[in-house]
Amino acid sequence: MTAVVTRIQVSGDRPYDVLVGRALEDELPALIEGAAQAAVLFSAPLRARAEQIAEAAGVPALLIEVPDAERGKTVEVAAMCWDKLGDNNFTRTDVVVGVGGGAVTDLAGFVAAGWLRGVRWVPCSTSLLGMVDAAVGGKTGVNIAAGKNLVGAFHPPAGVLCDLDALGTLPADDLLAGLAEVIKCGFIADPAILDLIEGDPAAVVDPESPVLRELVERAIRVKAEVVGVDLKESGLREILNYGHTLGHAIEKREKYTWKHGHAVSVGLIFASALSHLSGRLPVDVFERHRAILSLVGLPTSYAPEAWPELLSAMRVDKKARAATLRFVVLDELAKPGILAGPDEALLERAYAEVAR
Ligand SMILES: NC(=O)c1ccc[n+]([C@@H]2O[C@H](COP(=O)([O-])OP(=O)(O)OC[C@H]3O[C@@H](n4cnc5c(N)ncnc54)[C@H](O)[C@@H]3O)[C@@H](O)[C@H]2O)c1
Ligand SMILES: O=C(O)C(=O)C[C@@H](O)[C@H](O)[C@H](O)COP(=O)(O)O
Ligand SMILES: [Zn+2]
């Protein structure tokens, strides 16, 4: 039987496809046509897959190993990669390939965006979170001391490969992290996602299950529709940041040792509490957040004493405008909006829902 490949188009000035399927490495040569060489960025756990992808590229490939997870998402690591491209005479027709989870593909995209002011790149996503979110939409970047993803560029890829075979080796906790972004998509745009998870929570953590594939494709479609009309986050794209204002603050406080998806999970409780306590979101939808995130085993609470530090970290969130904090909230299921400048008492009451 021929394996089915699903192609989801992302529109925009330079449209591209997100491919979901199995054994997708043979799709790479078409995406990098005209390149004389490829730089394949990867971290240690993905060495074997990176070598396989480098082999399939059909052009000489420079393998560049970077530190794993958030340790690789730094300006210093990006500079190390640029030095290697320079040493190997990378020109504008050459291509950067990222093989890994969201951390490696965010870095690879940033390296590509900076090199010669922008060369082609292809994320070969290997984590659930990467497939449904990080590899799609052209947000690339690194973390700095002041906060998460504060330096980066919008630089859409030439195409995205989401090879479901990779999920077979993904640690269970990282699969869970990806589910947080899938659940986010359920609340902001596609409630069928929530029904699927609530209907069969065991299937959603089985890398072989058709339910997981359906969730991957649904979440990608949500993201593709949004970034296809608002690449640079001038409006609509902000909805993808639901749960992230507090989530990023937690990641910073934890010195990036918490998984992004776990921090977003706590952030979703906070954002839904803010939505409800500001009189916008009915209580049942608010409570559904805690229920579904707990059902799959994601965290829903965080340290009570952390609030002052988190509030200060949230002030450098990209959605803030001058001193005004802005949050993505829900008015009802699948109806996101913006809450600008909530008073501190309201923020504290929402945090009490997290700190319990
Ligand atoms: N650019 C965007 O739009 C966007 C969207 C969402 C998240 N992100 C970023 O993505 C990052 C999180 O991504 P993540 O959850 O994939 O974490 P990650 O990239 O840190 O990967 C988590 C761990 O899983 C390992 N791993 C990945 N795939 C594997 C596989 N198939 N087999 C074995 N091990 C594997 C990695 O080596 C790492 O140790 C964060 O930095 C976040 O800010 C970016
Ligand atoms: O693609 C987006 O836009 C998102 O907000 C998706 C988020 O899940 C993702 O974590 C993104 O990297 C956050 O972007 P940031 O601009 O807040 O750093
Ligand atoms: Zn995210």
From TrEMBL:
Superkingdom in the source lineage: Bacteria
Residue intervals of the 3-dehydroquinate synthase N-terminal domain: 64-175
Database matches in Gene3D superfamilies: 3.40.50.1970, Dehydroquinate synthase-like - alpha domain
Record keywords: Amino-acid biosynthesis, Aromatic amino acid biosynthesis, Cobalt, Cytoplasm, Lyase, Metal-binding, NAD, Nucleotide-binding, Zinc
Entry EC no(s): 4.2.3.4
Entry's localization field: Cytoplasm
Cofactor binding comment, as recorded: Binds 1 divalent metal cation per subunit. Can use either Co(2+) or Zn(2+).
Reaction(s) this enzyme catalyzes, per UniProt: 7-phospho-2-dehydro-3-deoxy-D-arabino-heptonate = 3-dehydroquinate + phosphate
Domain 3-dehydroquinate synthase C-terminal: 178-320
UniProt: Zn(2+) binding residues: 181, 244, 260
Keyword Ubl conjugation: no
Main location (coarse class): cytoplasm
Entry's family note: Belongs to the sugar phosphate cyclases superfamily. Dehydroquinate synthase family.
Function noted in UniProt: Catalyzes the conversion of 3-deoxy-D-arabino-heptulosonate 7-phosphate (DAHP) to dehydroquinate (DHQ).
Name under which the protein is recorded: 3-dehydroquinate synthase
Encoding gene per record: aroB
